[in-house]
């Protein structure tokens, strides 16, 4: 059975795992750091800034069950694609929204999806999520993996920081 990978950054990686993890065809969702210039960064380094990295998730999936295009659509619905300076209560470059693409096929799919969203009229502000070449992905410390399962109460607080309401207001229509 073949596997593909997708990497998305959409604010706190804790909030980005569950929507993908619970979808058919997903083999693994890992929290980590990517897009920067520091090798093997720690959570504290990324959180402090200056590494160039953003919190992201790397999704391993079975393309015969779920397509990359499907994953991009799920991604949009977890984020505010009009906010380039973070996501919800998480502010700063390390929380910027990015679709990291591994090849020209992923780039074309992501760009077509972004263009369709921009032309849909769903948002009045411009779609500012960037599409960037994938860089090395560094898996985050173990306590960050599957955080939504480990600490459901903390996850409720994270989602209460504006993400849940934004999703309901803008994506559940």
TrEMBL record:
The keyword Oxidoreductase applies. Pfam families: PMSR (PF01625). Its EC number is 1.8.4.11. The active site is at 12. It catalyses: L-methionyl-[protein] + [thioredoxin]-disulfide + H2O = L-methionyl-(S)-S-oxide-[protein] + [thioredoxin]-dithiol; [thioredoxin]-disulfide + L-methionine + H2O = L-methionine (S)-S-oxide + [thioredoxin]-dithiol. One of its GO terms (molecular function) is peptide-methionine (S)-S-oxide reductase activity. Gene3D superfamilies: Peptide methionine sulphoxide reductase MsrA. It comes from the Bacteria. Residues 5-155 form the Peptide methionine sulphoxide reductase MsrA domain. Keywords: Oxidoreductase. The keyword Methyltransferase does not apply. Has an important function as a repair enzyme for proteins that have been inactivated by oxidation. Catalyzes the reversible oxidation-reduction of methionine sulfoxide in proteins to methionine. Belongs to the MsrA Met sulfoxide reductase family. NCBIfam families: msrA. This is Peptide methionine sulfoxide reductase MsrA. It comes from Limosilactobacillus fermentum (strain NBRC 3956 / LMG 18251).
